[in-house]
Amino acid sequence: MPVLIRLAHHLAGAMRPEVQVCPGVKTAVFKEIKDKVLRLSRVRDAAQEWMEVLHTAVHFLKQGDVVGLPTDTIYGIACLAQNTEAIKKIYEIKGRSESKPLAICVGSIQHIYKYCKVTVSDQLLKDLLPGPVTLVFERSATLNPDLNPFTPLVGVRIPDHAFMQMLAQKCEEPLALTSANLSSQSSTLTVDEFYNLWPQLAVVIDGGPIGDRMSPLCRLGSTVINLVTPGKYSIIRPGCAFTPTVEILEKHSLSLSTSDP
């Protein structure tokens, strides 16, 4: 795989008009990279094949790799949050500053209590999750201290996406999750939109196009809500389902905070 990655980077650099690459070499290398893509869209009704894709993703995550995958909002890349070396890989792949935090993804509401200091009712969590929201709490001591070591907070997600939920459950630990794009570039709605990251990913799970690409809101990602202060909420980032999310928070008698905790 390292040879393939080096070749792929070489070829990517050789896309400049003044540099020539043997067409046969280019085709062979990109075919190998393309073979990393496992298409959920073809196996959604085939339980055995679905499980094979799931087990492949779990295998690579367990050995410390980074994978590309669909969520309910945009495409993401993920690794095991408890694996410090894998977290470093994510930052390297994205070209992202290590001062910018990663969210975690868990497979059930029960697991939120393990990794976060929850300040809201269980019913509120059930009303919001699974869904296109990231909830920010104080982190618990159980979470890897090398994940976002500069902050006592962590954002947690349970995407409304069956594959993502099953993956987190099968891994039996949280995933560190971020968008599948180079830092500061647009979010991605298909796997082809982040093909430049493929050489550095162990596998890419293709769940088909996400959302309505014609909508101006389609690339917003999840709505990020700070719930650190009991009875209060603050908006860190408005995103998908922003209005319904606020309505649920206020239905549970939370009020908008006028200052950061």
TrEMBL record:
Q: Which enzyme type, at the first EC level?
A: transferase
Keyword list (alphabetical) reads: Cell membrane, Cytoplasm, Membrane, Mitochondrion, Transferase, Transit peptide
Where is this protein localized, as stated in its record? Cell membrane; Cytoplasm; Mitochondrion
Name the membrane topology term.
Answer: Peripheral membrane protein
Look up the record and give one Gene Ontology term from the biological process aspect: regulation of translational fidelity
What PROSITE patterns does the database record attribute to this sequence? YRDC
Gene3D superfamilies in alphabetical order: DHBP synthase
One Pfam family recorded for the sequence: Sua5_yciO_yrdC
Catalytic activities: L-threonine + hydrogencarbonate + ATP = L-threonylcarbamoyladenylate + diphosphate + H2O
Q: Name one GO cellular component term.
A: mitochondrion
Q: How does it assemble?
A: Interacts with RSC1A1.
As for what it does, the entry says: Cytoplasmic and mitochondrial threonylcarbamoyl-AMP synthase required for the formation of a threonylcarbamoyl group on adenosine at position 37 (t(6)A37) in tRNAs that read codons beginning with adenine. Catalyzes the conversion of L-threonine, HCO(3)(-)/CO(2) and ATP to give threonylcarbamoyl-AMP (TC-AMP) as the acyladenylate intermediate, with the release of diphosphate. Participates in t(6)A37 formation in cytoplasmic and mitochondrial tRNAs. May regulate the activity of some transporters.
**Official protein name in the record:** Threonylcarbamoyl-AMP synthase
Source organism per entry reads Erpetoichthys calabaricus (Rope fish)
